[in-house]
Amino acid sequence: MLIANYEIAERFAKKHARARSSLATWRDVTLKATWKNFDDVRKTFRTADIFGDCTIFDIGGNNYRLIAKIDYEAEQVSIKTVMTHAEYDREKWKSDC
Description:
The chain is an alpha+beta fold. The protein has four helices and five strands.
C-alpha cells in the first residue's frame, strides 16, 4: 500500500516521542500490505475499526489513534489525523469520516 500524508504522523511523533516507534512499525507493515478490503486490514491489525469512510488504527498499545481513509483499488492509505486516546474520545474527528 502507498501511504499519503505520512508527514501528519511524523509531526505527531515529534510532539509525542513515545508514539514514534509504533508509528514507524505501522508504516512499515502498511507499506508491505496488499489489502483488498477491510477484512484484510483486520488480519494485519486485529484492533482496526471502521467509522464511516475511515479506518481507525490503535497505535502504541491503545494510547494513540491513527485515522485514515483507504482506497483499496488504488492501494493507497491516506492519513487524516493521528491523536492521543483522549483527543480521540472527544470525537471531533468524526466529521471528516
